[in-house]
Amino acid sequence: MHLLSNRTSSAHCARALFALILVCLLTTAPGISQAARPMITDDARIVDPKSCQVESWVQSYRGHRTDLWALPGCNPFGWFELTLGGAYEWGPGNENEKRLLAQFKTLFRSLDEPGGWGWGMSIGTLDTWYSPKRASLFEPYVNIPVSVSLANDRVVMHLNVGAVHTRGASGAWDATWGIGTEVYLNERMFLIAETFGRQGEGSSGQFGIRYWVIPDRVQIDTTLGSRFESPVSAYRWISVGLRLLSPPFLP
Length: 251
Fold this sequence. Notes:
Elements: H1 3-26, E1 52-60, E2 66-74, E3 80-90, E4 97-109, E5 117-130, E6 137-150, E7 155-165, E8 173-184, E9 189-198, E10 202-214, E11 218-227, E12 236-245
Antiparallel strand pairs: 1-2, 1-12, 2-3, 3-4, 4-5, 5-6, 6-7, 7-8, 8-9, 9-10, 10-11, 11-12
């Protein structure tokens, strides 16, 4: 692809992202609340039809390294959500990595009323395409999220079961899992807590607060987390995130 084409494409993407952010910030029409950032455990919801979202966050591992993520996603036809984004990780010395994530997610039963339940499936890949420590690492994955509403929607539980394939020396599929909960505190604030893990890597957990600055449009969050099996500070983290949701605007 020519350099001029790359610049033109980048300019179009930047303008589209800027327009999405403006729409999210300036529009306060209500929509269906979504359970997403800062939880690693996925939920049985997708962004509203013809709408988009941008999830972004910074995650710091106690001075060991820092991750910066941005994940735009859209629901163009009403029945599936596409997410394409990535991350930049930096740490002491020259330990920098760049990551690309692409995901398709659909629902077989939606969680759209108090006392209900839903489930779906996501398929995606996480590609670590630059690292001084190893070659590019391509990891496709599949995940099944199940969500259950309890106590008149004041508590929502999430269960995940999935697998990820590592294109490394082993070339094996590793099981993944997650259990999470969202607890309603008031109209704007939610408490979240979860534990999750991957076969061969042990279990981790985190808890935090999610707050709607503009209900159903602009959300901020913060969490504290740790890997359970390790007392090393490099496996403890703090994260701060921003989530923007648009009203329907896609053709």
